[in-house]
User: Fold this.
Amino acid sequence: MQYSEIEQLAELLKSIAHPIRLKILCLLQEKEMTVGDIRKEVRTTHANVSQHLAILRSHGIIDFRRDANFICNRISDRRITELIRTMRQLFCDREERPDA
Assistant:
């Protein structure tokens, strides 16, 4: 890997390395969601969810589309979906963990 690629990857990982952003990405793996839907799941304020979505959007991780009065958020890069899926398998699924 080139140093510039390592720097870009480090920035990407920093942008998702927050509990709320990881939770948002886990939720968005399955379907598009509005800010209100995400807020209910992560149990925080609308403003807080919007800030985290803005960070993910600025790094090109998520995108959105307008549906009438709603903004539907989705993961824009399938590599992120695969990364989250792999992390869940390695660290969250008890039957997959070596110490389980």
Remarks:
- The helical segments are 3-16, 19-28, 35-42, 46-58, 78-91.
- Residues 7 and 13 are 10 Å apart (CA to CA).
